[in-house]
Structure formats: structure tokens, C-alpha cells
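Possible regression after last week's pipeline update?

I re-ran a chain I had predicted before the update to compare outputs. Posting the input and the new output here so someone can diff against the archived version. Not blocking, just want to make sure nothing changed silently.
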Amino acid sequence: MGFQRTGRRGCVAGRRQVFAAVFLLAANTHVQNAAPGGTGPRVSQAPMQTAVEFTDEAGRIVRVPQPVRRIVSLAPSLTETLFALGAGNLLVGDTDYCDYPPEALSKPKVGGAINPSIEQIVALRPDLVLATKSLNRRETVAALDRLGIPTYVTDPHTVEAMIASTARLADVAGVHGAGAALAASLRERLAALQSRLNGEPARSVLFVVWTDPLISVGRDTFIADALRWAGARSVVESPQDWPQISLEGALRLQPEFLVFSGEHSEAEQRNLEALAQLPGWRDLDAAHEGRFAVVSEAFIRPAPRLLYAIEQLARQLHPQAFLSPPPPEQKPADAPAKPGLAGQTGSLGAPRFLEGRAACAR
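New output (post-update):
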């Protein structure tokens, strides 16, 4: 997956944002360098910050000031990861769609993930901005680079890559110990889950991102990999990240289960029952027989909470593997008390990483 792209109009708007941000940055610098009473420049008495070079997951060299005290996150998954690392206190701003944990809702907002306000980011005076290659636009990162704001980009495509990315983010944020401990814990949980599922046949599933048009996940996405860890196999083998498929195509594939990201509620159950009666859908054996699996919206975010959602799906697809008493700490402390829909269109939710994309391309 590459950075999000934009057209000429988006580029012009982006340049305007950069120009405005430059003036804001210059104004801030003038105020900081003014002598008491505004009589002339003075040398700042603040000590010089050292910087450490990191290579981000887009292959860019990023010089990060040390210590990191102020971070802006441009993706919900990155916001979640910071809090999971115990570094939520470093977060001074995030996007309109950063809604977990609840503390993230009270952080200053910089707009959407796809088109955040450069001016608002500058005003927050971050030491570091976190972005992700599959959601944020190349133009946003370039604009921040031109302003001299260090921007570290992540790009996990598998569950293991998410864990490794979490550990690297901990290093960048200056919380190495927390990153190493969290990564070890996540890998232990994966190992315990695989021990449970050893010998269980993989269930064929259709992961439904959107119902109209029908959008699923490609074979090279972290969601497809998460399905494999849960003892499932996606029936969609497309090289596209978010392929659109026809109901006729789904009928030919006939998955054993339909998997949705949403909430376990009576209303959601009614939605699924109504879906099963719609033309085309009712001809799917899984829909007709009520073989639905509903997982937390954490399943669509490459963050540590993804492990909880994988375990959740595995229990629904392979209940017999969980008849014996579960090992301790099966449900992590960061598991949601009530997983919520990421957004809604008609009867079912569409994940928030589709924000602003009519074509449903993340």
C-alpha cells in the first residue's frame, strides 16, 4: 500500500495550508525570540535539544528531538498504540476519528486523517508527528517535512508487523521498556491462541467492509493476516487492498461465515437478520443459515487491541477449541468494554479508515 494520493485541487489546497502554517510558525518564532518589552531579539535560554535519527517504515530518515514531549497522531491506530504504551500523556493532538481509548476524545483535534489542518498541527508545537502510509497522504507528510516537523510513518501489513511497529514506536517516543514488554505480551497471546487452534481446520470467511457496494479485504492486508491468526481463510484472493466484489461472485465463493466489524447488540442482530432477507444476500448459505461473526472494530485497526479482536473471532469460529478453561489474561486490560461500530451506512457499519473515500480505498 502506498501513501494516499490527491489531485491537482488537493495539491493547491495543501500548498495554501503550508503557506499559512509557515506564517504561523514564523510568528511563533518571532514571539519566542523577542526580548522582554519587545525591544529586540534575544537568545533563547532554553537548552538545545539533541536529536536521534530513526528510519521509519516508509524508508525515510527522521531526526527526532530528545526527549519527545509533544506528539500529534494522524491515525486512530497510532493514537491507540500510544495509549497502550502508557504514553498517552505525550499526545497533544489527534484526528476527529481517534475515539479509543475514551481519553483520546478529549485531545485537541487537527481534522480528518486524510486532510488534516497543517495550521492546527503547527499550533500544537509537536516534537513529533505520527502518520501511517496506508491512511495519510504523501502530501501531508511532505508539507510537515518542509516545515521541519519530524514525521514518523508506519506501514504494518501483518499482525507481526503491527507488533514490531509498536515496539519501534516505543523507541521513537522514548518508552523502550514499555514497547518491549507489550510486544512480548502480544506474542505470548498469539502463541497461546495458536496452541488452542492447533489441528482446527481454517474456516472460509468473507470479511465484509461495506455492504453496498460489497467491499472486502485483499490478501495482502493486515486484516487478511489477522483472519489467518483467528483460524480463518478469506475467500477473497484479490491483490487490491479493498476489492469490490459482486454478490454473484460471493455466491460462487460460498464462505462458511460472514464476518463483520460492529457491536454485539440486539439492534445489530436485527440488522444482520434483515440483511439475510435481501435479494442476493439470502442466497448465500452463510446468511440464510445465520452464520455471522461480529468482531470488535479493533479488528480494522493495526494496533495492540487487534489481538483481542483476533481472539474474539477465533472463539466464534472455533468454539470447541475453547471448551477447556482459558489460560489467564485472555481478555486484555485494553479490550473494549463495549466494542462500537466504526460508522454506519444503512444497516451495517463502514470502518472509519474509509473516511472521505467514496471509492472505499484506504
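Follow-up from reviewer: compared with the archived run. Confidence is low (pLDDT under 50) at residues 5-47, 329-333, 335-362. Marking as no regression found.
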